[in-house]
Structure formats: C-alpha cells, structure tokens
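Shipment paperwork, digital attachment
Item: protein structure file
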Amino acid sequence: MKSRSRRGVSNTVIIGAAVIIIILVAAGIYVYYPSLVPTGPKDTLIMGTTDSIESGLDPALAYDFFGWEIIQATGSGLVDIKAGTPNGATGSDIIPALALNWSSTTDGLHWTFNLRQGVKYIDGTEFNATHVKYTFDRGMGIADPDGPFVGIGYSDIIDNVQVVSKYQVKFNLKIPFSAFLSLMAAQASFIVNPKYAPEDEVVNYVDGNARASYPMDLGPYNLTKWVRTAGREQEIRLAANPNYWNASGGFPKTKNIIIKFYSDATALRLAIEGGEVDIAFRQLRASDINDLKTKTGVKVWEGTGAFIQYMVFQEKIKPFDDARVRRAVAAAINRTALTQTVFLGQAAPLYSMIPNGMGGHTDAFKTLGDANYTFTKNTLNDKTIYGGPYNSTHKLVVDLWYEISGHYPQSADQGLVLKNSLEASGVIKVNLNGLDWAAYRAKRGTESMPVYIYGWYPDYVDPDDYIYPFLHSSGGSWLHLNYNSTQMDKLIGWARGNTTATARNSLYAQIQTLMVQDTPMVSLYQSSAWAVTKPNVKGVYLDITQNWRHWLVYAEG
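Attachment content:
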C-alpha cells in the first residue's frame, strides 16, 4: 500500500528529511526546510503575571494598571498613541482610532471628532456619536470617588459633549486643557456599549459570565473567560474580535491570548524559563531580570521608565497631620540604598512626583536630602509636635504598610530597606505591615494606614497626570490621604488651564516647592518597564505610555 502524501511529499521522504536535519543540527549546522518548519504566527500566546485587577473592567470604575490593560485589549478610544513613541503626548504621536480625524478651535475649548463609519459592536449595532456622548456623560455622572473620572477630574475639564451628527461629536471644554488628546487615548476614555453599561451604575465582575463583566466590545479582543477566586485573578482569556475596526489591517496579530496569574516572582520566573508561558510581564525580581539576560532561551525587553513609587502620609492620623513630622520622615529616606539594593540599578532616585525627563520636573525633594539624619533629629526634637519631642529614647513610631502580592515590584524588599534607612536616624522606629492587593486597597479606603507605599503609571503622558490625581483636593480623593490646600488647588488649576510650556513649567516648579513644604507624600524612585519572552515573540513595545499592546504581539510558529 502506498503512503498517504502531504502536499505531494511522501511520509517516507519527510521522515528521511527529518533524520537528515537531526544529524545536521547535532553537528552544529543550521538547516531550514520550509515544508517542515512551521510558518506564520501562532494562534495562541500565554502571558504570565503576578499582577491582578484592582476592581473591575469598567472605564468608569477601573483605576489600576492591569485593569486598564484588559480594557485596552477589549475596547477602543477615539484616538490612540503610536506604539514605540518616545513622547506619547501630542502631534504625530496621537493616531486615529474610532475617530478618523479631529480639529480644535484656536482657544482650545472646542474639539470636534469625525468618527469611523461602519464600526460594529458585538451585537451588530453600529457605533456612532451618541455612544461617545453616552460614555462620557455616564462616567462623569457616576463619578465613582475611587475611579478615574474623579481622580483625573474629567468634570473639571469637560463642560459637555455634543452630538453634531451621526458621525461627528464635539467636546466643549471648561479650560484649554493641553493634554486633552492624550486624555482621549487613556483607557478611562474608551467607549462603552450602552447595552452592557448601565447609565447610573458601574459594571463589576460576574462569576462565570465574562460578557456581563465588562462593558466594551469595540477593541481587538473579546473577553471570553475571567476566573477570580477570593478577589484574586486565576485566568483571563481573550479571543480576536471579528468586528474590530482594524481587523482588515491584520489585527490582532495573535488570535487568542491566555493570561495566567502567578503567586509570586519566583513562580513567574520558573514559568518563563520552563516554557509554561510565552511572556512574563509584571513582576520579576531585579536579580532575575539580570540573570535572565544571560540565558539563551529567553529574551529580555526593557522600556522607557515612567513608573514611579512614592510614600503616602495619612493626615488624619497624628502626628502625621503635622507637616514637620512628614518632612522629617521624608528626609530620612535613602533613595540610593533603595534603588541599588532592591533594584540593582534598574531604577533611579526620584525627587519629584513628575518623572525625570518630563516637562515641569524639578528635583524639589533634594532640598530635604537623602538620609539627612541631622534634619530628621533636629525637626523631631520639638516639644510642640504631638507626642514629642522624639529622640533616641522616645522614638517616633511609623507603621509602614505595603502590598505583598506582586502588584508592585519587590514591595517587601522595599519595605525592609526603607525601615533600615528610617531607623538609621536613631529617632524613628518602623513597624512593617504587608497585605495582599485586594486587602491593601480596601485598607487604603478605610484611611487607617499611617504611612503607605503606592505606585503610579501614567494615565496620559503629561505632568498634570502626576500632579492633579494626588495633590488636588478633588483628584486626590481616591488616594484617601486627606490632603487639602487651597493654594495647591489654585496652582494646579492654573497649570491645567495654561497652554504655554514656559508658564506651565513655572507653575509646576511652584507646585513642587509647595509639595515639599507640605509633604503629603514623597517620591521614592522611577523605574523602567520590563518583560521577558520566548525568543520567537515579536511586536513588544514598552514605551513611555507603559501600555501593553496585546494586539501587536505575536510569535513565529
């Protein structure tokens, strides 16, 4: 009996060729045989992470890194930021998405967007201008105090959204907000499907029902599976959206994405080294990253560093209601020890909430110094401070809190270095406290942590995004630090409404000077973005936006 053939080549020939290839490979000779080597991208990629979704996948609710990444994979905004951009803010960095083009009036108060036609939701409904208005009216109307519409201050920027025609929408602003286009690219601005997004309530996780758990479906992927146990993600699955507006352009490049959630960095490293996942993204230890750079079976990707971490003081808890105490603690921080000991030089000391290299940045906190124990001792040795004076026999007790579930990099290690640097002052005693991310976020809301560590990835690439959500009395409500300053609110308002770079930089310098004076929080470090993949994975962009673009990533089969 003759052997069955495949593409006109007998099985005997294939087996023979395979034997030849094995012999040649063993001899160190690379052989490419097109009929035997798979071609084209793989249908499925597996990502591993230690991160989790803070709350949900509703743009009116979600205000965390990984939640926004899934929103970006399953939704679309009017505009997008070009992958790989070094700036990500204005001009050619902003590219069309659901809007084909746009224009603004010379005063910057009115923005008109012309929308794509023929874009379909999953149920076949055609996307139009009414859905844009619905999305923004809904988000600003819900005004979740822990959500981005309040944190970013959409209602302080947008006066109203006007449907001009079926495919044209107009935003009328209250101020000429310089970062408006960048804000339109933020995941909080992604368009929702009214069928799945109630007008007056947010969409939350629904066990066993992925479709009911998120309100978008105009993006490159549909959410087909979401398993959460005790507030912790176990697995998420994304499948290519056949109605995606850019499907004809060949996107997404990979049909299916499976995301697996690991308990810690060690488990994640074992998963990428053992081939269990194609991608490891957030969070690997610095030592593992350095070690993996030497391995031939993986590829390490490094991106622009716009991620920052900072220490927050709860001002409703004494003695941290006193700016002198807050400054004294801030002065005792040793940023060099933190960045070198924990991150092995993969992070840089940061002396401002605005990242190094971004417009408006000044090294404001350098006025307090690093490990400036003389300042700390002299400041705390004051009997007018509540519970003071503090000295070597009567130390200031600092209960320092941090998360321990991999949402931020090496949080426990950071806590230990911070404890050592503060206690080296001789007048501070630190008690370390760790919680998993869900419990940590809940405790933040109870306002019961005297001092705690948080991190930030940009919502939109502009200095405003590193100032307003933290220091403005309205925007900072999500952080629950109870800082209120009329002077700070005025300065931030002026900076938001000014479009001249020189004037904005001057205002941000004043804001940062006032921030040091008040020290409601203190910046710690700025870090790069890292990912580790199998060598055949392509299309990874780790740029200033810090966004992970699932639809661009693929692996050669």
